[in-house]
Amino acid sequence: xxxxxxxPCGYVYNPEEGDAMSGVDPGTAFEDLPEDWCCPMCGAGxxxxxxxx
Length: 53
Hints:
mainly beta
C-alpha cells in the first residue's frame, strides 16, 4: 500500500498502521480515508498529502 506525506509538517500516513488517534483501522488505504480526515499532527486536509515514491 502507498504511503503519503503531509507536505506542511512531514507526517507520514502509513496504511499498514492506520491512524489510531482518528479511529482509522490498520489496512485502510489513503484513498479510503473519509474526505474530512485531516493530519493528526497539524490538521492539514487530505489535499495537502502527496504520495511517497
